[in-house]
Write a structure and sequence with these properties.
9 strands; globular; three-stranded antiparallel sheet; Pantoate--beta-alanine Ligase, Chain: A,domain 2; binds adenosine monophosphate; 286 residues; alpha/beta; Rossmann fold
Length: 286
């Protein structure tokens, strides 16, 4: 496995890899868990070459957020990537990605005015900008993203379409702990009590999904029930609980078939998000 810190280096490695066929790309912020590894395995299964990036992008963190504290363990990440059959890792320093304060940013409108876009101003601008840079650097044929970050996935799909990046976006279902908690690098912030409390997110999402699948069409009532169930957990500080139509993240209408149920809450220092999708008329597992 090649490990590259420089843009010029990863570009030349990708040029070599491309000789054996299309290249898949998995962008990450590192501190790997089974969610990241599932993305890599899925990429490996579908493509002859897999490139992973590890970069904690300062642009997508707000001033009061956890950029400095975000967990990092490059040595362990490289070992896990190697064991998963990754061909190359791009792990640039901050100065390699941003040698100067940038003048150019990518803003994806509308889709970023809801959910995390409301509570984390500038977050998706940071994500869209760094992902655009990474796509330009690696120039992959496909990129793999987790359904765990459902809004990010829609933002990136739209970015790729609007700016003609010409690559396939592959979504991978959320990987969960045995008790349903979505895997996240931020779960390490949780105390044992908060860790137990955090299971309320997926539990309440499932209750809401079952209600809709059971025929409940009063989505505001379902949304209120979802919010109330999370708010009732003493260790949870609810940020939002929303039901929106996919893929545009607009308020749902009776005719919408694909719904996103998304929640965000704080448990101590950890801000956690989770979501499920519901296809009306059919059960989906995410
Ligand atoms: P991150 O390192 O948190 O930026 O995540 C890198 C990629 O892994 C993103 O596409 C995430 O959506 C995806 N990811 C993170 N956690 C999970 C999970 N539990 N299941 C599936 N994908 C995940």
């Amino acid at each position: 496995m090649r490990v590259c810190e420089k843009v010029a280096e990863i570009r030349s490695v990708v040029r070599e890899l491309r000789r054996s066929g299309p290249v898949a790309f998995v962008p990450t912020m590192g501190f790997f868990h089974e969610g990241h590894l599932t993305l890599m395995r899925e990429a490996r299964r579908r493509f002859p070459s897999v490139v992973v990036s590890i970069f904690v992008n300062p642009l997508q963190f707000g001033p009061a957020e956890d950029f400095a504290a975000y967990p990092r363990d490059l040595e362990r990440d490289l070992r896990l990537a190697r064991e998963t059959g990754v061909d190359a890792v791009f792990a640039p320093a901050r100065t390699e990605m941003y040698p100067e304060r940038p003048c150019t940013f990518v803003d994806v409108e509308r889709l970023t005015g809801v959910l995390c876009g409301r509570t984390r101003p500038g977050h998706f601008r940071g994500v869209a900008t760094v992902v655009s840079k990474l796509f330009n650097i690696v120039q992959p044929d496909a990129a793999f993203f987790g359904q765990k970050d459902a809004q990010q996935l829609q933002v990136i799909r739209r970015l790729v379409e609007d700016l003609n990046f010409g690559l396939e976006i592959v979504a991978v279902p959320t990987v969960r702990e045995a008790d349903g908690l979505a895997m996240s690098s931020r779960n390490m912030y949780l105390s044992p009590g908060e860790r137990r409390a955090a299971t309320v997110l997926y539990r309440s999402l499932q209750v809401a999904r079952e209600a809709i699948l059971g025929g409940e069409r009063d989505l505001s009532a379902v949304r209120e029930g979802l919010a109330a169930q999370i708010a009732a957990e003493p260790l949870a500080q609810l940020e939002y609980a929303e039901i929106l139509a996919l893929p545009d993240l607009t308020p749902p209408h009776a005719t919408d078939k694909e719904l996103l149920l998304a929640v965000a809450a704080r448990f101590g220092r950890a801000r956690l998000i989770d979501n499920v999708t519901v296809t009306i008329g059919e059960k989906t597992e995410t």
